[in-house]
């Protein structure tokens, strides 16, 4: 784990005052065209990159939810429609597969002094992306309710179920747990979290052959089923957006939630100030006898397109360096868990930092992981609804994955 | 009309359809016969904020050579159509060979993704379409009989559900049917069942989707029928009255036969639209209990990081074939009518 | 008609009145609810504690000092510049309607007047074209559009929407032209007009009811479309529906949801005006047109 949080805290305050001349990023000319997802932290980065615009430097951005669908065709053309594609652990994979992004070593050497080694995403010895923020799921709990009932903050799922059982028996809450269990991407992400927590791997080493049909896979499914027992029957529609009002209504005391949403949860100007005040975060629980938090670590970062002129690539990299400047971070401290040098974690980041320190594992950056994610999302709901056995659910996942991976050329 | 004049009139429309629909359909059909080249994988070390691991990645240079040689991929014939995610021929054969009774066969077939989606799609199509026609017809009859000065506002409010955007559906209606929302809470009170949740139970989710479908499409049928009612020949109605026909008999034997062609038109459009049902499933987060063919396509194209074009193409072609089969009776009728006319 | 209505038994009048009222509530209630709620804050409109909060607005009271607030509208229109999307939508819908109708009238007229067998097969092909799921079509457009460097612009989206809607337009207008007596244009041709002159002089003056109805459906398609516009337009060219979706974002931010609600109401209001204005034409157009199915 080369995550450099502690060592960089001291340097941060110094850097925050160092900036000054925004408009001048030192770029002579070029065109910077940014494609990214659409949320607050990325808005901040793109806005700061836009400050590099001048008479000779053009900076445009397109921040849309559809970025994942647009990026591959947009970067395939020559010249590419965008020079910068902002990606995450999973969405960089198609760009790597199709060879659409360029190595950044040269630019990092010239203009990347501000970058930490941990920010460099190195694939096969070449820097292919620059990460700037981290995200993971964590345990979000109601401090007031737990302490009023004499419950310690759960560190394992067993603790969590015991706590839920106590709250239920004490008549405090009928369904004390919630989690993003909506079938599709969300449900699959929960399976991935817990399976990573078992320490096991999804695939046979070095191949695309699925390896989840084992005791750990069954353990994860049984664990998910137990979660459902303590969740409202509406769990089939729970994603980050629909669990928030449930939390704010005080119907739930323990939830597995995304770190990126933590800031909004403790915002005391929100609709439920008392609950926001009593909300705290801890590392995601461990599963079974394992000691790894059941949370996949994700990063968000940027890549530079291959099919563009070197001039544009250079301008893009330097504009993005301004986008990741300490001044940007100082203005948007709460927007994300930044990986930028000098970051000082806030309360909203405490859960993700706890995950990191307890050794949570990263989301696998494998070319066929997306296929497995889809297969998991489509085939686990029936088991959780009690319509089929865990073995059958794993068999369905395997069948769906195998069909997809065969079509994509990963299996024969 | 001579062929040349005909072409002169129709070419812009034809060109637009050929470029943006016919050619894509052909290319989708072609694509559905191919699968991706065998991926050349290499083991590399990948480092990031969370440490270094040995990961497998695609040898993109080698793959680029393969693709330059054969851009469409490997020929797979109808393999994609018959694989486990589509028609699942092998699985079905096995199910019939190893199951003990009909119930087991049914459950196991329903567990195959394509058939699961197909069942919901067909149920939706065949429940919503007739209900839309019947409800639209009744509304039209009733609105036609109210005082003239009220007709304007009533027609206007009746059209509202048709202009609902999928977003209103997903945002407002989804909230209203929540067990704590106004409709959900009202239903709980009505059935005095505090655990009733439209979102949780598969059966209720289906009902919710059906009700939404009828609500959304009924105004279309209403407008068409209402317009048709204005042209029902009054003398026929009056002579029926003179013959002593009751109100119901007049509707049954004069109005309904007269409006039959309109009902066909509505049925044609509705069968097609309902067979492609998709937006309500996303809007109501109903994918746990209900998936449709269009949802499967969406899933292949958008849910994954790398879209499965071949699989989506195969499902799309199957959707088109499904629509053609549904429309065959209507097409035959039109063909006979066309021949009679010419 | 009124003579018939007068002779109705009271029980039937009661029944149909109750039915109309019931239908109106079912049809209009979600919109009135949304409109009312757009003046509240998220904590009220989406309150889990008690749905009555959406009516009374205690959180709105606490946060804004009054039970009504324009915060949603202000955020959407001023802060997020929703008016840009309104302009884009206006451009897209205007051109989609004009081009669709121009192509559709010419084509529909030809299909209605030519007696050859291929017209039947063309109409059938149009139906098959309509069966193609839009998601598949749009995903197929992306790469060629990027290669031609026409992705992201309004004209591209306009042409795509016109093409996708052409089968429906052709069908409606074809059956409408069938209902216009052939003698009308043939008489003009006997008088020495060419086919096009006959179309211009004899048909155009009487075709408006059908064209307006078809135009309304083209309008609604372009106005409501999400699948095509969300994938083919850049952020600054976004039309209203993708813009509203971007308020919801990949992760909802506190308060922004109400921008979406306010924008949804803003997006529906022009439709109110439009339908009121064209109500008579819509109905009369359908009367003349679709009867022949």
From TrEMBL, chain A:
SUPFAM superfamilies reported for this sequence: Periplasmic binding protein-like II
Keyword Metal-binding: no
Keywords: Signal, Transport
Signal sequence interval, chain numbering: 1-23
Record InterPro entries: Bact_solute-bd_prot1, SBP
Predominant location: periplasm
GO cellular component terms, semicolon-separated: periplasmic space
UniProt-annotated location(s): Periplasm
Family: Belongs to the bacterial solute-binding protein 1 family.
Name assigned to this protein: Extracellular solute-binding protein
Lineage of the organism: Bacteria, Pseudomonadati, Pseudomonadota, Alphaproteobacteria, Rhodobacterales
UniProtKB/TrEMBL annotation, chain B:
InterPro entries with a match to the protein in the record: ABC_transporter_permease (IPR051393), MetI-like (IPR000515), MetI-like_sf (IPR035906)
Subcellular locations according to the entry: Cell membrane
BP GO terms, sorted: transmembrane transport
Keywords: Cell membrane, Membrane, Transmembrane, Transmembrane helix, Transport
Pfam families assigned to the protein according to its UniProt record, in alphabetical order: BPD_transp_1
Bilayer topology annotation: Multi-pass membrane protein
Name of this chain's protein: Sugar ABC transporter permease
Organism: Maritimibacter fusiformis
Alphabetical list of PANTHER family matching this protein: ABC TRANSPORTER PERMEASE PROTEIN, INNER MEMBRANE ABC TRANSPORTER PERMEASE PROTEIN YCJO
Any single GO CC term annotated in Swiss-Prot or TrEMBL for this entry: plasma membrane
Organism ancestry: Bacteria, Pseudomonadati, Pseudomonadota, Alphaproteobacteria, Rhodobacterales
Family note: Belongs to the binding-protein-dependent transport system permease family.
Residue stretches spanning the membrane: 6-26, 117-143, 155-177, 203-229, 251-269, 310-331
Domain ABC transmembrane type-1: 118-330
The UniProt record lists the keyword Lipoprotein: no
TrEMBL record, chain C:
Cellular component, GO, one term: plasma membrane
Superkingdom per UniProt: Bacteria
Listed transmembrane segments: 12-33, 90-112, 119-146, 158-180, 201-223, 257-278
Major site of localization recorded for this protein: membrane
InterPro entries found in the cross-reference section: BP-dep_ABC_trans_perm, MetI-like, MetI-like_sf
Domain annotation ABC transmembrane type-1: ranges: 86-280
Compartments (UniProt record): Cell membrane
Gene Ontology biological-process entries: transmembrane transport
Mode of membrane association: Multi-pass membrane protein
SUPFAM superfamilies: MetI-like
Keywords, alphabetical: Cell membrane, Membrane, Transmembrane, Transmembrane helix, Transport
Matches recorded under CDD domains: TM_PBP2 (cd06261)
Entry's family note: Belongs to the binding-protein-dependent transport system permease family.
Designated name of the protein: Carbohydrate ABC transporter permease
Originating species: Maritimibacter fusiformis
């Amino acid at each position: 784990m080369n995550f450099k949080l502690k060592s960089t805290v001291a340097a941060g305050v110094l850097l925050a005052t160092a900036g000054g001349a925004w408009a001048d990023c030192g770029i002579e000319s070029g065109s910077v065209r940014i494609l990214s997802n659409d949320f607050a932290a990325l808005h901040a980065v793109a806005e700061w990159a836009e400050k590099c615009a001048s008479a000779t430097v053009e900076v445009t951005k397109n921040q849309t939810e559809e970025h994942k669908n647009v990026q591959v065709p947009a970067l395939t053309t020559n010249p590419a429609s965008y020079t910068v594609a902002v990606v995450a652990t999973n969405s960089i994979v198609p760009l790597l597969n199709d060879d659409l992004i360029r190595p950044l070593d040269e630019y990092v050497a010239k203009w990347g002094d501000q970058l930490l080694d941990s920010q460099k995403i190195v694939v096969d010895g070449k820097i292919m992306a620059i990460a700037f923020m981290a995200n993971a799921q964590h345990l979000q709990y109601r401090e007031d309710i737990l302490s009023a009932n004499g419950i310690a903050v759960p560190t394992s799922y067993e603790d969590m179920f015991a706590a839920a059982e106590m709250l239920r028996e004490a008549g405090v809450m009928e369904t004390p747990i919630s989690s993003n269990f909506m079938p599709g991407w969300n449900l699959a992400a929960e399976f991935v979290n817990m399976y990573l927590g078992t320490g096991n791997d999804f695939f046979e080493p070095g191949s695309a052959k699925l390896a989840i049909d084992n005791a750990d896979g069954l353990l994860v499914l049984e664990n998910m089923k137990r979660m459902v027992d303590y969740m409202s029957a509406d769990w089939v529609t729970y994603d980050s957006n629909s669990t928030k009002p449930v939390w704010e209504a005080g119907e739930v005391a323990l939830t597995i939630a995304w770190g990126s949403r933590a800031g909004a949860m403790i915002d005391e100007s929100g609709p439920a100030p008392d609950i926001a005040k009593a909300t705290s975060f801890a590392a995601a629980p461990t599963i079974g006898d394992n000691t790894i938090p059941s949370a996949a670590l994700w990063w968000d970062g940027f890549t530079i397109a291959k099919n563009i002129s070197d001039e544009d690539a250079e301008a893009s990299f330097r504009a993005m360096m301004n986008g990741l400047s300490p001044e940007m971070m100082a203005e948007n401290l709460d927007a994300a868990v930044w990986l930028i040098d000098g970051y000082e974690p806030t309360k909203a980041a405490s859960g993700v930092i706890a995950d990191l320190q307890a050794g949570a594992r990263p989301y696998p950056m494998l070319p066929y992981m997306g296929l497995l994610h889809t297969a998991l999302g489509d085939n686990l709901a029936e088991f959780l609804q009690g319509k089929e056995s865990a073995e059958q659910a794993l068999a369905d996942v395997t069948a769906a994955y195998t069909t997809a991976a065969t079509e994509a050329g990963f299996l024969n | 009309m001579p062929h040349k004049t005909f072409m002169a009139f129709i070419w812009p429309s034809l060109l637009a359809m050929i470029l943006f629909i016919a050619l894509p359909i052909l290319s989708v059909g072609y694509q559905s016969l191919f699968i991706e080249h065998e991926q050349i994988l290499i083991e590399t070390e990948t480092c990031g904020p969370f440490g270094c691991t040995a990961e497998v990645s695609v040898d993109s240079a080698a793959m680029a050579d393969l693709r330059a040689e054969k851009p469409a991929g490997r020929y797979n014939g109808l393999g994609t159509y018959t694989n486990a995610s589509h028609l699942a021929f092998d699985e079905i054969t096995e199910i019939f060979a190893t199951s003990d009774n009909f119930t087991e066969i049914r459950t196991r077939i329903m567990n195959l993704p394509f058939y699961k989606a197909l069942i919901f799609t067909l149920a939706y199509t065949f429940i919503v379409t007739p209900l839309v026609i019947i409800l639209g017809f009744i509304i039209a009859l009733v609105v036609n009989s109210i005082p003239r000065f009220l007709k304007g506002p009533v027609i206007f409010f009746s059209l509202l559900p048709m202009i609902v955007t999928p977003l209103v559906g997903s945002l407002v209606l989804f909230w209203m049917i929540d067990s704590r929302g106004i409709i959900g809470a009202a239903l709980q009170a009505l059935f005095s069942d505090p655990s009733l949740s439209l979102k949780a139970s598969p059966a209720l989710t289906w009902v919710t989707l059906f009700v939404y479908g009828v609500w959304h499409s009924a105004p279309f049928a209403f407008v068409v029928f209402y317009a048709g009612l204005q042209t029902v020949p009054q003398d026929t109605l009056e002579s029926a009255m003179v013959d002593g026909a009751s109100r119901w008999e007049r509707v049954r034997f004069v109005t309904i036969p007269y409006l039959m062609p309109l009902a066909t038109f509505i049925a044609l459009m509705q069968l097609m639209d309902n067979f492609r049902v998709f937006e309500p499933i996303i809007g109501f987060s109903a994918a746990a209990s209900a998936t449709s063919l269009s949802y499967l396509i969406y899933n292949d194209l958008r849910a994954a990081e790398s879209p499965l074009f071949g699989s989506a193409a195969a499902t799309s072609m199957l959707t088109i074939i499904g629509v053609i089969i549904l429309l065959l009776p209507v097409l035959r009728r039109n063909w006979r009518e066309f021949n009679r006319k010419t | 008609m009124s003579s018939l209505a007068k002779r109705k038994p009271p029980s039937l009048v009661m029944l149909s009145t109750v039915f109309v009222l019931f239908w109106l509530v079912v049809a209009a209630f979600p919109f009135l609810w949304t409109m009312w709620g757009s003046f509240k804050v998220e904590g009220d409109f989406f309150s889990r504690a008690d749905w009555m909060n959406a009516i009374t607005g205690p959180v709105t009271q606490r946060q804004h000092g009054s039970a009504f607030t324009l915060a949603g509208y202000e955020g959407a229109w001023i802060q997020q510049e929703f008016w840009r999307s309104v302009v884009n939508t206006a451009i897209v819908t205007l051109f989609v309607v004009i081009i669709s109708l121009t192509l559709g009238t010419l084509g529909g007229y030809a299909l209605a007047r030519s007696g050859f067998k291929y017209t039947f097969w063309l109409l059938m092909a149009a139906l098959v074209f309509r069966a193609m799921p839009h998601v598949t079509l749009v995903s197929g457009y992306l790469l060629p559009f990027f290669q031609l460097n026409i992705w992201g612009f309004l004209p591209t989206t306009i042409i795509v929407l016109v093409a996708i809607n052409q089968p429906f337009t052709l069908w409606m207008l074809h059956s409408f032209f069938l209902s216009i007596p052939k003698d009308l244009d043939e008489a003009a041709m006997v008088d020495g007009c060419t086919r096009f002159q006959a179309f211009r002089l004899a048909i155009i003056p009487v075709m408006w009811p059908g064209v307006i109805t078809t135009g309304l459906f083209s309008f609604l398609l372009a106005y409501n479309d999400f699948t095509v516009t969300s994938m083919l337009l850049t952020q600054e060219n976004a039309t209203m529906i993708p813009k509203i979706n971007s308020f919801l974002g990949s992760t909802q931010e506190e308060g922004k949801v109400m921008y979406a609600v306010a924008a949804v109401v803003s997006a529906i209001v022009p439709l109110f005006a439009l339908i009121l204005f064209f109500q008579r034409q819509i109905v009369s157009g359908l009367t003349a047109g679709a009867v022949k199915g």
